[in-house]
Design goal:
This is RidA family protein. The protein has about 130 residues and is an alpha+beta fold. The chain has one domain (about 5-125): 2-Layer Sandwich (60s Ribosomal Protein L30, Chain: A). The protein is about 30% helix and about 30% strand. It contains four helices and six strands. It is globular and about 40 Å long. The two termini are about 15 Å apart.
Length: about 130
């Protein structure tokens, strides 16, 4: 098996190693990013929902930047929301702060019952810019 080309955001490698997964993998010109949640530096959930969503995007953007890209390079998004019926409007009013201009990436939204103490998770696939394909 080939060695995985893992991308770690600054300062969080120990957190990912402790939890035994890679934050992102470069492969064939794409970046596959694990689901990002609104965790604090120690990995604990941010209790405020709006801040949790912002932290999830900040954590995502740190990984994208480390790989040499940005949310503009994202082509596919999956979001997971605990109890989306009651939380969707709160979450979706924050999305434009990070989403950018149209055309937007594809989107799949999934309602879930549990996210390890979190309320929102976002995972993406991005097309790496030329020179960032690792």
């Amino acid at each position: 098996m080939a060695t995985r080309d893992v991308v770690f955001p600054p300062g969080r490698q120990a957190l990912y190693e402790r939890n035994r997964y890679s934050p992102a993998i470069r492969s064939n010109g794409f970046l596959f990013v694990s689901g990002q949640v609104g965790s604090r530096e120690d990995g604990s959930p941010e209790p405020d929902l709006e801040m949790q969503v912002r932290r999830a995007f900040d954590n995502l953007n740190a990984i994208l930047a480390e790989a040499g890209c940005s949310f503009e390079d994202v082509i596919d998004v999956t979001v997971f929301i605990v109890d989306p019926e009651s939380k969707f409007e709160t979450i979706w009013k924050i999305i434009p702060e990070y989403w950018g201009e149209a055309p937007h990436p594809t989107l799949t939204g999934v309602g879930v019952t549990w996210l390890y103490g979190f309320e929102f998770e976002i995972k993406v696939i991005a097309k790496l810019p030329e020179g960032a394909a690792g």
